[in-house]
Every structure is written in structure tokens, then in C-alpha cells.
What we know:
By secondary structure, the protein is of the alpha+beta class. Helix content is 14%, strand content 35%. It has 2 domains: 65-194, Protein Transport Mog1p, Chain A; 200-336, no CATH class. It has helices spanning 50-61, 115-121, 175-184, 314-325, 348-358; strands at 3-7, 28-32, 75-84, 89-99, 102-111, 125-130, 137-143, 151-158, 161-169, 220-229, 233-241, 247-254, 265-272, 278-284, 290-295, 300-307. The strands form 2 sheets. Strands 6-7-8-9-5-4-3-10-11-12-16-15-14-13 form a 14-stranded antiparallel sheet, covered by helices on one side. A two-stranded antiparallel sheet has the order 1-2. The termini are far apart.
Amino acid sequence: MKRIVCLILVSMLLSGCSYITGVFEALHDSLSKEGEINNQLIDQKNPLDERKVIETAMEKQKEILKPGFITDDYKIGHMGINYYLPEGDLYYSASYGSYGNLIMMFYDRQPVSNKEIFNSMNENFEVDKEIEHDELKGFYGVRNTDWDSDHYEMRALHDDVSYNITVAAEEETDNLEIMERMTESLKTEADGAYDPLYNRITIDLDQVKFPTLSEDYTNVESVRIGFWDSSEAYMELEVSYEPKGLGYIHFTVVDKEVNIPEDYYDLEGEKETAAKTTVTEYKDKDNDTFLFTWTDEVYHYKILFWPHDGSFDRQDIYDIIDSSIQDQRKFANKEAFEGLRNEPNFNQTEKELEKLLKD
Length: 359
């Protein structure tokens, strides 16, 4: 049954952000159809395409340098890809451990906006040696820290991107030689690197739901693809939005139940949305940050929300959640989530490193 609803939009207070001015000025009448959400933040017919941004991130990360010695035998602690718009900055990190003499290895790749900060991070090296690599310039050595054991690290720079490897191995192992071989092994997937992250995509891409946010009022700030393997392995897909005049939203889908730390959040209560979805709300103990959690009976979801001025209409959040429940879109490029190879292509460097770690 159709009914006429007159929507009167109240002028927004200026918050100092120039892009907010004049955004919500129009007054209009709208016809409501059953199942349609009457909220200007939502556009169910032509929504923002965050899936394309995630696909772009997955394609771009295939082109970066990765450790060429990694196999499926390495224990994975964490792997993460962060992609930021509009610059297109890509961050990649991974932690490995429990392989031969190796106790732990951490790899990090990120853009550098301030070289002075990068240079300051390269201080306090007790022993250092210039690295040998076709593309990277930098050094590796022992960093002075408060840790109980020596902290072996490589830091390099190429085209305003920094690369870092940190290792800890058994005392009788030549950590500096291991560091040297690890650095030499950095290569792209096309050149022989194998990345186990693709085997850890445990979320069914056809089952993922995102909000159908309007391109006129919202933009994607960043996306994140993350994997953890601690007491229980799980995967997260996260999209960060900034709806104009509302605040910042981190929308996350997880393939395990969301654990809310009671030390940081207070339970505010539960609410059933118009789409009959039960949403649990929490508030940060220290600031005006809000957390909303729910499930679609397939995956678990959460919204971490920072309102611009500390206050907001919760109906906006509930409408965003309901729009995701009704989302029927699919990823168009699933090949983006497939690696270029099923195993590494070892050269002499990787073979020598393998021997060092196993002896």
C-alpha cells in the first residue's frame, strides 16, 4: 500500500567542514514503496560501489614486493591489506613464525609521506649493512631496544614506499645472514613470490552484504582485508565511509562472532530495526564513539561510528543497517581474490635461506 510522506529536512549546523555547506538544503515529497528506505543517505537503485574498491585493492597488492621464501609451512599470525582513497595508498603487513629456527618474522610495506620521520626510525642501529637488492635502498642490522633479545631489522625505501622486515630466531642462528637473504628474496607474485593470504579468504564473497549508500552523500575513505590466526582463525572485510554531515563509519563483516571488550565499551541496549534485525549498541567508555553489532544469520557485522558533533539520529544508523540486510549485489571480479601462483618459485637466494632456517 502506497502512502505519501512529506519529508522536511532541517538545515544542518555548520561544523567547519566546507563540504557540508549546502548539502542538505532541498525539501521534497517522496512516494514510499514497501521495503524502500526513506533516507537520503540510502540509494538502493544506484548505490556506492565499495566492492569495486576492494577488488582494486586486491589487484594492486599483487604488484608489490613480498617475501619470496614464504610457503604454506609457515605459521601465519596476521595478514592485512589497507587501501586508502583518494590517493590510492596501499599498506600491506604480515607476521609469520614457528618455522625451523625462526621464532618470528614481521613484514610491512607502506607509503612514506614524511622522509624525516622515516629517517628518524632508522636510528639506534648497533650494527648495520647496506642491503643488496635491485630496487630497494636501505640497510639492515641490530636495533638497540629494551627487549630481552636482539632485534634484527631491515628498513628500505623505494619510490616513497618503505619496506620493513623484523626477525627473531634461535640464538645459534646467524640472524644477519637470514636478514640479508630475506631482503634479497623480496619480489612480486609475477616474479615468483607466493602469498598464502588467498587460501585464507574464508568469507563467501557472494554472501557478503554492504549498505547501499548514496554516492551523493557518501564516499569510501578506505577498505581493509584482514586475517588473524590466534586462538581462532578468522577473516574481516572492512569499509570506512564518511557520510556528509553524519560522521565516520567503519562497516565490518566478520566470519566469527564479534567479541566486545567490556573494558572499553558500555552496553547501551538492543533495538529492532524496521527490517526486524536485532541491533546491539555499545558506547566507548572514554569518548563519543558508538558500536553497533548484528548478524544476518550468515556472518557477523559491526559498525564503529564517530559522529561529527557527538550527537546523531540513530535512525540513520538503523537505515544503513537495514539497507545492508537488503543488499543483493555481488562482486564482479572474483579473480581479484585469486593469487598468481600456488607455490613459490625458489631461486638460489630462497634455497640458501631455507637451508639457514632448517640447519
